[in-house]
Amino acid sequence: MKAIGLYKAASVETNGLFAQAELETPQATGHDILVRVKGVAVNPVDFKVRQGKADDGTFKILGWDAAGVVEAVGDDVTLFQPGDEVWYAGDVTRSGSNTQLQLVDERIVAKKPKSLGFADAAALPLTTITAWEALFDRMMINREDIAANANKTLLVIGGAGGVGSIAIQLGKLAGLRVIATASRPETIDWVKNLGADQVINHRNPLDEELKAIDIANVDYILCTSETDQYFDVMAEIIAPQGRIATITEAKDNHNVDLLKAKSASFAYEFMFTRSMFQTPDMIEQHKILATVAGLIDAGTLKNTANESFGPLTPESLRKAHALLETGKAIGKITFDGIPG
């Protein structure tokens, strides 16, 4: 089988950054299914793992968003059979999806939306699971209590990114008043089209931006951008007994006592936690993806694929990483599978 990966960490401008290799086809055992990958997408985790690649001469396959067709199943598999069309984000501790054939645990996979092609379907798994877990697991928003949520506000910092684009929609489905941050005309239009009730500019102090629309505090904050940049202002604008979740690392030490008087909570969301630690509730990601597939097919949720880079090749993958690293990508970048 063909796979695209890298042998050592390098800047995105490096010629020959990614290479294509011919590898042996893996065999499905246990809870694993073998998927023929038909579509993939890129996420910031891709370039972060690339930048941290050990210089040990090994061939590292990136990619944690895919859709494809099941080719074979392990002895313990009960959810799928060969021929099923599936989608998944995968496991960051295992080989990624930038390959023709990939092993993935059935418990973090679901049947893909019937209404989407493979590349479009690949745009959603990682960001959908991340946004879902952040809102409904980490911040414990009751997505079914629409009446109670109508009086509560969700601020999504970085609304036009992959996770923000899904979080806006999930927040609206739960009945929340959603405020998204965006700074460019095209990103403002994007978040409005996804259902954001109001838009503020994250290039300005967020407390001042909120005051300008007559909001002093928000009940929930999802930070998809720089935690270090926004921690203090999030502590300032979170409502008493409010909840904050972030998906980005903090390099600085922050004073969590800023949250004490408000009894506010702060949580990290890392969608690979369940697969990385093989948690007892690992199958929840299968359930999330199955639920979202139904919402997509019903037209309740919009796909967030925004740019297609065509077939997956070493050069098209390098260009996608370059765009992601600018921080200016809107929605998701997708590819068809590796040719041949």
TrEMBL record:
Show the SMART domains listed in the entry: PKS_ER
Matching InterPro entries, A to Z? Answer: ADH-like_N, ADH_Zn_typ-1, ER, GroES-like_sf, NAD(P)-bd_dom_sf, Quin_OxRdtase/zeta-crystal_CS, Zinc-ADH_QOR/CCCR
Per the record, the major location class is cytoplasm
Which cellular component appears as one GO term in the record?
cytoplasm
The terms under GO molecular function for this entry are: oxidoreductase activity; RNA binding; zinc ion binding
Q: Where is the protein found, in the record's own terms? A: Cytoplasm
Q: Where in the numbering of this chain does the Enoyl reductase (ER) domain appear?
A: 16-335
Query: Which Pfam families does the entry link to?
Result: ADH_N, ADH_zinc_N_2
Top-rank taxon of the source lineage equals Bacteria
Give UniProt keywords alphabetically: Cytoplasm, Metal-binding, NADP, Oxidoreductase, RNA-binding, Zinc
What NCBIfam families does its record include? adh_fam_1
Describe, as the record does, how this protein assembles with itself and its partners.
Homotetramer.
User: Into which family does the record put it?
Assistant: Belongs to the zinc-containing alcohol dehydrogenase family. Quinone oxidoreductase subfamily.
Entry protein name? Zinc-type alcohol dehydrogenase-like protein
Lineage at the top is: Bacteria, Pseudomonadati, Pseudomonadota, Alphaproteobacteria, Rhodospirillales
